[in-house]
């Protein structure tokens, strides 16, 4: 991959740089609960301001499937948070197209910032679901591209999607580059996987085997050990004819799980015991080797944690994606937190968290700086690790 980076752009002084960021932050009751994605894009914006360009920020927030859903999905609150975090002035435009936006851009001074309303507002027009943004409507991409001179993609979290605000703009503009964040993501994910220091241990947890099956196959070939955590392990437990009670599993993937275990033998390590609960609720659980009937496996148990610690001892490269339990619940976050602490203490190892809930756990524990890299994109990092082409990066001009 030899994509143009910010430093490869020609003189951007006075130019309008359309910048796709991923500010799709979690919001609870009107309050942003994690600002990591905003902070992660600051270096790119700072660079563009230092080069005296005019920065127009595009981001999506959540999914838009009706006019009503727009009420709680304005990115105005994100523009305010950006001001708070950076101290810059940010002009928020409550439109995704039209005269107000066009005039605001044409009146911009060098080194100033405009933030455009949620790009996914374009998915519903006059109450009709049209998915102009999410299905990369060609007119929309062209229109947005016409508002600027240069496109910078720094939204790693959506780079695996072909949307109007990334692929659409990039295909219709003279010059494009990736931002610092995507550059860093590529560097860590690509370099680490292509040339890992060994032992190389991969931990894969989270809900769905079917989402991660390709990545298991890809990584098990490169890694020394791949550890499968909850809830994915229950599909493997079914394949081993273990009792799983009412735990989350995918019976359709059982054959695949069998094949993987046969093919990769003891390279593939499956969670042993579970902390179980009678309901999917944040209650005190019980430890069992096999989940009893009527119960749900909610967290990895102590035998599993011991095994994971043993495998992680001396590891020189660790890639982790997906929590090892329902880490959103206080009673079932133990395994995920213990694993996070264990990885954080590894000496001289390259440690990468591939986004999503496991990254959220690490961030909330204040351990992010103990990891070599916390990826901002769950789905995107998984697809990247699978070796798939990410359209949002692929579309960017070569050096
Ligand atoms: P993923 O997006 O595939 O990484 O999955 C993350 C989700 O998996 C989180 O919301 C976790 O709560 C969920 N999860 C992890 N372990 C379990 C489990 N044992 N049962 C149900 N959900 C789980």
Structure description:
- By secondary structure, this protein is α/β, with parallel strands linked by helices.
- The chain folds into two domains: 6-183, Rossmann fold (3-Layer(aba) Sandwich), CATH 3.40.50.1260; 196-386, 3-Layer(aba) Sandwich (Rossmann fold), CATH 3.40.50.1260.
- It has helices spanning 36-50, 76-86, 99-106, 138-146, 164-170, 180-194, 209-222, 233-239, 254-264, 302-312, 334-344, 356-364, 378-386, 391-394, and strands spanning 16-20, 27-28, 31-32, 54-58, 90-93, 112-116, 124-125, 128-129, 150-153, 175-178, 200-206, 225-231, 268-270, 274-277, 286-288, 296-300, 317-321, 350-353, 373-374.
- A six-stranded parallel β-sheet has the order 5-6-4-1-9-10, sandwiched between helices.
- A hairpin with an 8-residue loop joins strand 14 and strand 15 (286-288).
- Helix 4 packs across helix 5, helix 8 packs across helix 9 (254-264) and helix 10 (302-312) packs parallel to helix 11.
- The longest helix has 15 residues, at 36-50.
- The chain is globular.
- It starts with 15 loop residues before the first strand and ends in a 5-residue tail after the last helix.
- Residues 206-208, 211, 230-231, 248, 297-298, 322-323, 325-326, 328, 356-357 line the site of adenosine monophosphate (AMP).
- Adenosine monophosphate binds next to strand 12, strand 16 and helix 12.
């Amino acid at each position: 991959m030899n994509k143009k980076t910010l430093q490869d752009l020609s003189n951007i002084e006075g130019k309008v740089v359309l910048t796709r960021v991923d500010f799709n932050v979690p919001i609870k009751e009107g309050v942003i609960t994690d600002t990591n994605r905003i902070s992660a894009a600051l270096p790119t914006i700072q660079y563009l301001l230092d080069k005296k360009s005019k920065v127009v920020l595009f981001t999506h927030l959540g999914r838009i499937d009706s006019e009503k859903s727009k009420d709680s999905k304005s990115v105005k609150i994100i523009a305010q948070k950006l001001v708070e975090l950076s101290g810059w002035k940010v002009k928020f435009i409550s439109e995704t197209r039209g005269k107000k936006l066009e005039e605001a851009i044409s009146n911009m001074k060098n080194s100033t910032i405009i933030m455009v309303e949620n790009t996914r507002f374009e998915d519903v027009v006059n109450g009709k679901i049209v998915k102009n943004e999410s299905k990369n409507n060609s007119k929309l991409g062209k229109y947005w591209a016409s508002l600027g001179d240069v496109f910078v993609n720094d939204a790693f979290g959506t780079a695996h999607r072909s949307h109007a605000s990334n692929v659409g703009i990039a295909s219709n503009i003279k010059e494009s580059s990736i931002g610092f964040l995507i550059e860093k993501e590529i560097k860590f994910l690509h370099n680490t996987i292509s040339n890992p220091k060994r032992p190389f241990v991969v931990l894969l947890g989270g809900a769905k085997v079917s989402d991660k099956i390709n990545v298991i196959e890809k990584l098990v070939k490169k890694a020394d050990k791949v550890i499968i955590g909850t809830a994915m392990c229950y599909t493997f437990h079914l394949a081993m004819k273990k009792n799983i009670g009412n735990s989350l599993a995918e019976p359709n993937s059982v054959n695949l799980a069998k094949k993987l275990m046969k093919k990769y033998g003891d390279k593939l390590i499956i969670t042993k015991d579970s902390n179980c609960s009678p309901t999917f609720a944040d209650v005190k659980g019980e430890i069992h080797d096999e989940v009893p009937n009527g119960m749900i496996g909610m967290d990895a148990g102590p035998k599993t944690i011991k095994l994971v610690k043993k495998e992680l001892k001396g590891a020189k490269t660790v890639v982790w994606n997906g929590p090892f339990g329902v880490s959103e619940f206080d009673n079932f976050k133990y395994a995920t937190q213990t694993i996070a602490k264990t990885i954080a203490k590894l000496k001289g190892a390259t440690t990468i968290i591939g986004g999503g809930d496991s990254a959220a756990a690490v961030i909330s524990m204040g351990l992010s700086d103990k990891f070599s890299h916390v990826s901002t994109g769950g789905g995107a990092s998984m697809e990247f690790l699978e070796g798939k082409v990410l359209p949002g990066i692929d579309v960017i001009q070569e050096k």
